[in-house]
Amino acid sequence: MELAKLAAGDEHYKAYVGPPLKYDLLGALQFTLLCAAGLRSTHKICDIGCGSLRVGKMLIPYLNPGNYYGIEPNQWLIDEAIKEEVGADLVRIKKPQFINDSDFKVGAFNQAFDFCIAQSIFSHSSMAQIEQCLSEVAQSLATDGLFLATFIWGKSDYEGEKWVYPGCVEFKANSIKELAWSKFGLKMQRTNWPHPNGQNWVLFHFPGNETKAEKIAHFNLGQYDSDIEKPKASYSIKGKVISKLSRALKK
Ligand SMILES: C[S@@+](CC[C@H](N)C(=O)[O-])C[C@H]1O[C@@H](n2cnc3c(N)ncnc32)[C@H](O)[C@@H]1O
User: What architecture does CATH give domain 20-250?
Assistant: First the structure.
């Protein structure tokens, strides 16, 4: 089937996740943004609603083995992406991990993530689902980690209780900012990163990372600032802060 004849949401791995002709563009955009935000091969990332591995097919070869984690309720999308894009050999070498879940169970991986990403997930979610996802992320994000997510901003909040697909829903930026801060202690930083479907990228982070988040939000490759590069060295797992220092001292 010719990709140009398919519409977003059709049952083809490149179409189900969005306009099929933008499949590669959306993957490359996410990969570039993550690198600009400081992602390096040693970091661990959770791709929430990883779909047909649009960014996963770039992250899996790049990251060190065991550093890519994907959550996706539709296993067929992952299967097709492995068959058509990634290949079984790379899966064997890089050991990505996946779970089929529609409750955003980031904690099921039992990791402290340097990055989480949810591209075109909250543009289909109910407020309760966003809350559930933020709750999961807040428990599994490193203290210096970043959660990159897209939203469609509107003048009012979608009040339905269900996931909407392939249609989209809107939220007020202030409602999401308030929710993230008041319930989960996550700050929300809006960014000027581009998106080919008119969505808006935001960063969620714990307090203490404001300067870094601000720099990333207004990222300009021509004025590259290496302060962005390495998140600090302390990790939060389920609310407990474990300092990497103790490990360094033992070496
Ligand atoms: C618009 S696609 C985006 C996929 C991917 N993030 C990307 O950029 O290609 C939305 C994805 O969310 C998945 N999804 C549906 N319900 C979900 C849920 N409750 N939690 C996580 N993902 C869900 C869909 O199966 C689909 O793969």
Answer: 3-Layer(aba) Sandwich (3.40)
For ligand 1, whether the C-beta of 63 sits within 6 Å is no
Ligand 1 atom nearest to CA at 30: 8
- pLDDT tens digits along 150-170: 999 999 999 999 999 999 999
Strand pairing report for 141-151 and 68-71: unpaired
Name residue, tokens 């001292």.
249
Question: What's the pTM?
Answer: 0.92
Q: Which atom of ligand 1 is nearest to the CA of 163?
A: 16
Ligand 1 atom, smallest distance to 54 CA? 9
Ligand 1 site, residue 42, Cβ cutoff 6 A:
no
- With a 6 A CB cut-off, is 73 part of the ligand 1 pocket? yes
Mean pLDDT of 93-109: 98
**Residue 22 is encoded by which pair of tokens?**
């933008």
Structure confidence by residue, pLDDT tens digits, 223-248: 777 777 765 544 454 444 444 444 44
Phi, psi of 231 (to 5 degrees): -55, 150
pLDDT of 234 = 45
Please report, as a single letter, which amino acid is at residue 130. I
Atom 20 in ligand 1: residue holding the nearest Cα = 102
